[in-house]
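Internal QA ticket QA-208
Title: Verify multi-chain structure generation after dependency bump
Assignee: T.L.

Test input:
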Amino acid sequence: NAGVTQTPKFQVLKTGQSMTLQCAQDMNHEYMSWYRQDPGMGLRLIHYSVGAGITDQGEVPNGYNVSRSTTEDFPLRLLSAAPSQTSVYFCASSYQTSSTHDEQFFGPGTRLTVL
Amino acid sequence: KQEVTQIPAALSVPEGENLVLNCSFTDSAIYNLQWFRQDPGKGLTSLLLIQSSQREQTSGRLNASLDKSSGRSTLYIAASQPGDSATYLCAADFSDSGGGADGLTFGKGTHLIIQP
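Actual output:
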């Protein structure tokens, strides 16, 4: 199993540009999520999904869109990048039911710089 | 607001010492608590997961405990080695988010340095 994979590993954007951060998992997990990590702020939840066709907002969703058309993939879209979105982005997945939340597995991250 | 706090923010100890990292959380209603390791410029490696019904978990030289009533978890590292140097993060999966988001709430981490 490859686990959770993310592409690209590094990206530089100019203000106003758009891009999609890719995330895929091969563990058949229903739950997937996106976090951003900033110095002094820790990791914060951006968006999450409990299954195909279902997405919801996390703590810091502004400026980001997500969709979940398959169980395996959960892309994160920046429609108009801003310097405040310079960060390291992590995708995660886990097995969850209504009463059980299992271990979360994280991808290697995408380092994004917005100039 | 549900929060996770880690103390100390940084710790430096000589090789071979046993050490304890602390994590506190504001709400005892959790699904689980998870400890991660993060090396500089790298991703998060899961170390131990403690489900709400459990008191502790062990993996090699690592032992994590959970006390929901006091809102505390500790990560015990035995016989520390220079290779243990990293940032250690704890994260709580709160089960009652008050209608809020369903995800992990992270502490800001303890930066650990093991001196050779």
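Spot checks passed. The radius of gyration of chain B is 14 Å.
Status: verified.
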